[in-house]
């Protein structure tokens, strides 16, 4: 699982798991919530980094819950819809993953 796709702008699988865990245990009313979460995640993540990651997570959840996610169970779609108004971190590893999956 160390080869988690780097589609989350530099967040490893382990960092994402620590991020999820820290959100579960750090009260959202804690005055230093993002600093505490950053310390729990480690890896040099700052309070600003984890807060931005949280905002992205909320946007993803809102998109999924809105019903705009175009998918059918058991059917692989040959395309994905991307919001081109936002910056996307795309690496050679992401490209290699798609090549290995033979997605055209």
Automatic annotation (TrEMBL):
The keyword Transcription regulation applies. GO terms for molecular function: DNA-binding transcription factor activity. One of its GO terms (cellular component) is nucleus. Keywords: Nucleus, Transcription, Transcription regulation. Its main location: nucleus. It is found in: Nucleus. It comes from the Eukaryota. InterPro entries: Homeodomain-like_sf (IPR009057), RADIALIS-like (IPR044636). PANTHER family: MYB FAMILY TRANSCRIPTION FACTOR-RELATED, PROTEIN RADIALIS-LIKE 4. This is Protein RADIALIS-like 6. It comes from Hibiscus syriacus.
């Amino acid at each position: 699982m160390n080869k988690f796709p780097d589609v989350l702008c530099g967040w490893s699988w382990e960092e994402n798991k620590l991020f999820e865990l820290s959100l579960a245990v750090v009260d959202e009313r804690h005055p230093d919530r993002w600093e505490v979460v950053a310390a729990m995640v480690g890896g040099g993540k700052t309070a600003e980094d984890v807060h931005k990651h949280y905002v992205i997570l909320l946007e993803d959840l809102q998109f999924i819950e809105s019903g705009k996610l175009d998918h059918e169970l058991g059917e692989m779609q040959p395309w994905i819809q991307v919001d081109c108004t936002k910056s996307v971190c795309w690496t050679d590893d992401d490209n290699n993953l798609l090549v290995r999956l033979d997605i055209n």
